[in-house]
Design brief:
By secondary structure, the chain is α/β, with parallel strands linked by helices. It has 3 domains: 76 residues, Roll (Urease, subunit C, domain 1), CATH 2.30.40; 127 residues, Diaminopimelate Epimerase, Chain A, domain 1 (Roll); 46 residues, no CATH class. Helix content is 30%, strand content 26%. The strands form 4 sheets. Strands 10-11-12-13-15-14 form a 6-stranded mixed beta sheet, sandwiched between helices. Strands 1-8-3-4 form a 4-stranded mixed beta sheet, with no helix packed on it. The protein has a 4-stranded mixed beta sheet with strand order 6-5-2-7. Strand 5 and strand 6 form a beta hairpin. Helix 6 crosses helix 7. The protein is elongated, with a radius of gyration of 24 Å.
């Protein structure tokens, strides 16, 4: 059965909705009302539902200016809520090279070499998708990336976004060295060799986000990326998202507020504060 996320048009505000009646008929409307869970039609005026019920009842709202959509049995669902998402991280890494998380070390190195060659004109090379387990308990090492590219910084997030693999140039730019304390020992930390030197595996965001900042991250870049990423939420039917936090809370609030003023924010936001 095909689905129609009508509420994306409505609950996202006035971004997509126009102040004119729209009638959706011949639909399977799931209402979330335990007494009347199903309806055949809905009528929308501006950004409000003004009728939910039978097709016969919806006909009285139809005039020459009304837009009528025959859904031919397709389903209308309430807007979905994304219960855990990191818009800043997602936006930042939405345009990087995505590696195959099922690749072994040998294949990963081949894919990274190829990606670096393709990104030769970029000052910072970002990727995402490796699985740390393929490197054993010591994890990935900067030396493997140095052998591919030593003059430009490389940062690669694992497939879950909870650790990062960087080359020596990235560590150098960020000032991460032997005497750099772990942000949260045992929780967010730098994997180290027997002499205490960071190996290039940064575990949990508090260890690698300072590196991201040093590599040139700024709110304008995030905002530009979010303008491209946020419509994806709408395409999946999300009308509310829980922003589970980042290192950019203050900047993210400003970005959300600015996008809302510009009618560019396509969902409600519940921040983790």
């Amino acid at each position: 059965m095909a689905f129609v996320f009508v509420s994306v048009i409505i609950f996202a505000g006035n971004i997509y909705a126009k102040p004119a009646k729209k009638v959706f008929i011949n639909a399977a409307v799931y209402t979330m009302d335990v007494k009347k869970p199903w309806a055949e039609a809905v009528v929308i005026e501006g950004d409000k539902f003004i009728y939910i019920g039978s097709m016969k009842g919806a006909k009285k709202y139809i005039d020459k200016k009304t837009k009528v959509f025959n859904l031919k049995g397709r389903m209308i669902l309430p807007g979905f809520i994304e219960s855990h998402v990191h818009p800043a991280f997602g936006s930042l890494f939405s345009s990087v090279v995505i590696l195959n998380q099922d690749s072994d070390k040998e294949q990963l190195i081949k894919d990274i070499k190829k990606a670096v060659a393709e990104k030769k004109d970029e000052d910072v090379i970002g990727m995402m998708g490796f699985k740390a387990a393929v490197f054993g308990p010591e994890g990935p090492k900067a030396s493997d990336l140095d052998a591919i590219e030593s003059k430009k910084p490389i940062i690669i997030l694992d497939y879950g976004g909870h650790s990062a693999w960087v080359n020596s140039k990235a560590l150098q730019i960020a000032g991460i060295a032997k005497d750099t304390p772990d942000p949260m020992p045992g929780g967010h930390y730098y994997k180290r060799d027997k002499d205490g030197n960071p190996t290039g595996w940064c575990i949990e965001p508090m260890s690698f986000m300072p590196i991201v900042f040093k590599l040139g991250l700024n709110p304008d870049e995030i905002k530009a990326a979010e303008r491209n990423l946020f419509p994806v939420f709408s395409s999946f039917g999300y009308t509310t998202v829980f922003d589970a936090g980042s290192f950019l809370e203050e900047d993210m609030f400003k970005i959300y507020l600015q996008m809302e003023k510009e009618n560019k924010l396509p969902f409600r936001v519940l921040p983790a504060i």
